Amino acid sequence: MSFCSFSGGEFYKDHFETGMYVCAECGHELFSSRSKYEHSSPWPAFTETIHENSLSKHEERRGAYKVKCGKCGNGLGHEFVNDGPKRGLSRF
């Protein structure tokens, strides 16, 4: 994760209340709290999106994808994929 910065204070990493995560710019539905999981990254992580078009992704580096809102293009973070099990989105 050398090209992701973290300044501390990420509120949604440990937030597990029932609900919907939406784009902060346009309100497009992104994730359900049911798909959120705990992990070692400082950012929240999810296993699946609400809609097929909730996100758009493009590979920036091998195994590192830039993730954007599928409706307005707002930057949401990165997805890191390795040869192991799929880990989901590591930041939104």
TrEMBL record:
Q: Which UniProt keywords apply?
A: Cytoplasm, Cytoskeleton, Immunity, Innate immunity, Metal-binding, Nucleus, Oxidoreductase, Selenocysteine, Zinc
- Top-rank lineage group of the source organism: Eukaryota
Q: Which GO terms describe its cellular component?
A: cytoskeleton; nucleus
In the UniProt record, does the keyword Chaperone occur?
Answer: no
Q: Name one GO biological process term.
A: innate immune response
Where does the record place it? Cytoplasm, Cytoskeleton; Nucleus
Query: Can you state which reaction this protein catalyses?
Result: [thioredoxin]-disulfide + L-methionine + H2O = L-methionine (R)-S-oxide + [thioredoxin]-dithiol; L-methionyl-[protein] + [thioredoxin]-disulfide + H2O = L-methionyl-(R)-S-oxide-[protein] + [thioredoxin]-dithiol
Coarse class of the primary localization is cytoplasm
Q: Which InterPro entries match?
A: Met_Sox_Rdtase_MsrB_dom, MsrB_Met_sulfoxide_reductase, Mss4-like_sf
- Limits of the MsrB domain: 1-92
Family as reported in the entry's similarity comment: Belongs to the MsrB Met sulfoxide reductase family.
Summarizing the function annotation, the protein's role is: Methionine-sulfoxide reductase that specifically reduces methionine (R)-sulfoxide back to methionine. While in many cases, methionine oxidation is the result of random oxidation following oxidative stress, methionine oxidation is also a post-translational modification that takes place on specific residue. Acts as a regulator of actin assembly by reducing methionine (R)-sulfoxide mediated by MICALs (MICAL1, MICAL2 or MICAL3) on actin, thereby promoting filament repolymerization. Plays a role in innate immunity by reducing oxidized actin, leading to actin repolymerization in macrophages.
Its protein name is MsrB domain-containing protein
